[in-house]
Amino acid sequence: MWFSKKQAAAPTGQITTKRRGDAAEALARAYLTAQGLRLVEANFNTPGRGGGEIDLVMRAPDGTLVFVEVRQRSTASHGGAGGSITHAKQRRIIFAARHYLMRFASLPPCRFDVVLVQGPVGEQTIEWLPSAFDAY
Question: Top-level CATH class of 17-133?
Fold first, then answer.
């Protein structure tokens, strides 16, 4: 017998993890835009299971294509937002970036940035780490 498991909706007014993540991405996008980067695409996903996602694909003023990972944490415990970017997470981002780059006839200069959004809603700090890791 097949069963459907419905997800319970969050009570009205409750901030879900998804909502916090979306808000952090919007904050990061606004911050990077103010720094001169231009949004190319948001939430790029590779097809199929086991792929990766790129939160923001942006273009720097010098033409560099910037793959941005946004990490949000409300507290600094357990390494905070930066501590959640594991080697496995980096591999998935690099995999997604390689998939994204297949659309180009010649590869543009690229880099991997990280934006850390930390603190409770309304009191968040933003830390931008350009060239946070390399493709290996």
Answer: alpha beta
Q: How far apart are CA 106 and CA 108, in angstroms?
A: 6
Which spans in 16-125 are helix H?
17-34, 87-101
pTM of the model: 0.81
| Local confidence band at 65 (pLDDT 50, 70, 90 cut-offs) | very high
The pLDDT tens digits of the residues spanning 7-63 come to 445 455 566 677 777 888 999 999 999 999 999 999 999 887 767 899 999 999 999
Compute the distance between CA of residue 37 and CA of residue 59 in angstroms, rounded to an integer. 6
Structural domain boundaries in the chain: 17-133
Task: Please say whether the beta carbons of 121 and 20 come within 8 A.
Answer: yes
Q: In whole angstroms, give the CA distance from residue 58 to residue 110.
A: 10
Nearest CA to 69 out of 49, 92, 46, 103 is that of 92
